[in-house]
Amino acid sequence: MTARLDIHTHPVVAKAIKHLATAGTAMADSALPPATRELVLLRCSQINGCGMCVDMHTKEAARSGESSVRLHLVATWRDSTVFTEAERAALALAEEGTRIADAAGGVPDDVWENAVKHYDEDQLGALLVTITVINAFNRLNVITRQAGGAYVPGQLG
């Protein structure tokens, strides 16, 4: 697969990426548990078919100590026993927020209420921004055909 555009050197896109990356970095410093953040980043990227982000977030999660079992089961989290109730609430919100166009009413109330049960206001805000930012990155990468496989853990800081 050949990329349609070099997103890192294109003057407009590269500038926008810096701003998106800054938002993502702010979420890394938030009260949202790092493991939850990585699981959400991975799940959104799987749904969107973003090979570059699946590659990156699988490797970064492993580098941070996440088990291979949990990483392999993210795609089937509903049918897995390795995730906490809080992680399940975050993954459900991530899925609904990513598939927002598929639901006429947006994110269902029960999904939102379950997330509110498990996360305080600061964590919930971080979760929402994490979902939003990764979806933007996923779309940029998928549209421009950025391939996965070459990411080296830590290469982006």
UniProtKB/TrEMBL annotation:
Pfam families: CMD. InterPro entries: AhpD-like (IPR029032), AhpD_core (IPR004675), CMD-like (IPR003779). SUPFAM superfamilies: AhpD-like (SSF69118). Transmembrane segments: none annotated. Residues 13-96 form the Carboxymuconolactone decarboxylase-like domain. PANTHER family: 4-CARBOXYMUCONOLACTONE DECARBOXYLASE FAMILY PROTEIN (AFU_ORTHOLOGUE AFUA_6G11590), BLL7811 PROTEIN. NCBIfam families: ahpD_dom. This is Carboxymuconolactone decarboxylase family protein. It comes from Streptomyces cavernicola.
